[in-house]
Amino acid sequence: MTAMPSPAQFEFLRSIDTPTVCNLLEVVAPERRGFGYTVRHLHCPFPDLPPMVGFAKTVTMRAQDRVPLGEAGYMNKRLDYLDYVASNPQPSIAVIQDLDDIVGFGAFWGEVQTNIHQALGCLGTITNGSIRDIPQVAPGFQMLAGSIAPSHAFVHVVDYGVNVNIHGMAVRSGELIHADRHGAVVVPLETIEPMKAAAAGLAAKEAKIIEAARSGKGVEAIKAAMK
């Protein structure tokens, strides 16, 4: 069973943005400075939504070619996939890697899928693939996507519960994810409490440098604050 952050730890993570999470990880787990987060732009149609913090439901998909299974066989797979999305741990974030040669050829996400996934405890999605139906998306469902496209083409789930990689962020099923308009990062559970302890000191340090920069006292004041 996946360990769960405490309510206070969830509240802390939801109170800060994803760049701040990355900054704090650099403090408490410096070995993660160069990996564990998205490194390319992702479209975010709802930038004003709060950060989402949830457990990864990992999926691979394709849309360029027809479903390779028989119709009945594929429907069984889709129903099993829904059981996976609805399973613990919750809340979840659907992390979907598009495997097509033309990534984003068909959109997995639109009005129907966002409503289905939200009903199953999903906060949103992170995908290198495409999204559509933006005005009709389930209210409050966040999406970070590689592109925007009009058609779902032959979209189908290839596999789920597998390791995926979204724009440089390697993710395993069940890992905790923090994401907002800036991108996403994997948060090891053991780092949350040290991050909480380091947050005030980091904020004070940054505030001191910013204050010096805005003071009009020149470079020496900024250098002194940085030291």
What's a concise summary of this model?
The protein is an alpha/beta fold. It has helices at 7-14, 18-28, 71-86, 111-119, 192-214, 219-226; strands spanning 52-62, 92-98, 122-131, 142-148, 156-160, 164-166, 169-171, 176-180, 183-186. The radius of gyration is 20 Å and the shape is elongated.
Structural class: alpha/beta
Helix content: 25-40%
Low-confidence parts = none
Alpha plus pi helix count:
6
State the end-to-end distance.
45 Å
The CATH top-level class label of the largest domain: Alpha Beta
Fraction of residues in β-strands: 15-25%
CATH homology-level superfamily of the largest domain? Ribonuclease E inhibitor RraA/RraA-like
Main β-sheet description: 7 strands, mixed
The tally of domains stands at 2
The radius of gyration over CA amounts to: 20 Å
Average pLDDT: 94
* CATH A-level architecture of the largest domain: 3-Layer(bba) Sandwich
* Overall geometric form: elongated
Number of strands: 9
Mind explaining what this structure looks like?
- By secondary structure, this protein is α/β, with parallel strands linked by helices.
- The protein has 6 helices and 9 strands; from the N terminus they run ααβαβαβββββββαα.
- The chain has helices spanning 7-14, 18-28, 71-86, 111-119, 192-214, 219-226; strands at 52-62, 92-98, 122-131, 142-148, 156-160, 164-166, 169-171, 176-180, 183-186.
- Strands 1, 2, 3, 4, 5, 8 and 9 form a 7-stranded mixed beta sheet that branches.
- β6 and β7 (169-171) form a beta hairpin.
- The chain is elongated, with a radius of gyration of 20 Å.
